[in-house]
Amino acid sequence: MADTVPPGRYSGKRDIRTDAVNYAIELGAIEKTFAGHQVLKKVSLRVKQGEVCSIIGPSGAGKSTLLRCVNLLEQPDGGNMVVAGQYLAAGRSHPRRELLQLRRNVGMVFQSFNLFPHLTVLENIVLPQRRVLKLSAEEARERGAELLKRVGLAEKADAYPAKISGGQQQRVAIARALALEPKVMLFDEPTSALDPELAQEVLAVMKEVAASGMTMLVVTHEMGFARTIGDHLVVMEDGAIIEQGVPEEVMTNPSEERTRKFLSAVNR
Ligand SMILES: Nc1ncnc2c1ncn2[C@@H]1O[C@H](COP(=O)(O)OP(=O)(O)OP(=O)(O)O)[C@@H](O)[C@H]1O
Ligand SMILES: [Mg+2]
């Protein structure tokens, strides 16, 4: 039986506690070390169902590594977590079936889009539905076309990624992730490779996804997004969360000097 623990119904020795709130993501003392360098130092974080949690912090803080631990693209060395109802723990080997379930529950969007260059926009969205959801070609194309409409790219279905803008490619990447109907979406600086105008198109799509009730964990430098769309703001530095709270409050009145310095640097 899969070691899947519904949120709110487990307790005991595990170092995550739950209460009446439904959390889509609970991280308990996550640790990660690369070549003797501890990149994550017992990071604990809870993201409620339907919440948008933004993560900010200087380069090298461990933001990407933390995100990658959530879907086990990186294996944590310590700690445990519950992600979309699935219990995962460091040091425990997760059968392929569990990993597939996790990857299906957790969509990820990267800074660099990562579309297949030899496939059209629509084919990029059809492929995972065929492979993962085992849908028929017809159904996958139908849903793909629907998703392209949702991200405002219906007319680009037959274009190849190289022929559309970076902002459009990123919207395709979001549509592709949504095609698997994930319970949680992770975004790692989805707009930082884009010109401001193209970034706005992507942020508009992310805003719509947030409004649809998706739980989102977003590493970003877009303070406007974090402030207006984000429900929760997390500040990381040197492998740890140094501050977190309501975005508006953290941004206007940070309690940590390091946060203040970081914010004034990004707002310059
Ligand atoms: N696969 C890896 N092997 C070795 N070191 C790594 C690896 N991935 C990340 N690191 C190191 O871990 C630290 C944290 O990296 P991470 O990419 O998580 O930071 P970040 O906060 O996302 O930074 P940025 O804002 O530049 O993207 C850095 O010192 C980085 O060099
Ligand atoms: Mg990063």
Mean of residue pLDDT values: 91
Say what the CATH topology is: Rossmann fold
What is the general shape? globular
The oligomeric state is single chain
**Helical percentage:** 25-40%
Tell me the Rg in angstroms: 19 Å
What's the architecture in CATH terms?
Answer: 3-Layer(aba) Sandwich
N→C terminal distance = 53 Å
Could you give the order of strands across the largest sheet? 6-7-8-3-9-10
Features:
six-stranded mixed sheet; globular; binds adenosine-5'-triphosphate; binds magnesium ion; four-stranded antiparallel sheet; 268 residues; alpha/beta; Rossmann fold
Your description of this structure?
This protein has 268 residues and is of the alpha/beta class. It has a single domain, classed as Rossmann fold, CATH 3.40.50. The chain has helices at 63-70, 96-105, 121-131, 137-150, 166-178, 196-211, 223-228, 247-252, 257-266; strands at residues 23-34, 37-48, 52-56, 78-83, 86-89, 106-109, 184-188, 215-219, 232-237, 240-245. A six-stranded mixed β-sheet has the order 6-7-8-3-9-10, with helices on both faces. The longest helix has 16 residues, at 196-211. Residues 1-15 have low confidence and may be disordered. The structure holds adenosine-5'-triphosphate (ATP) and magnesium ion (MG). Magnesium ion is lined by residues 63-64, 188.
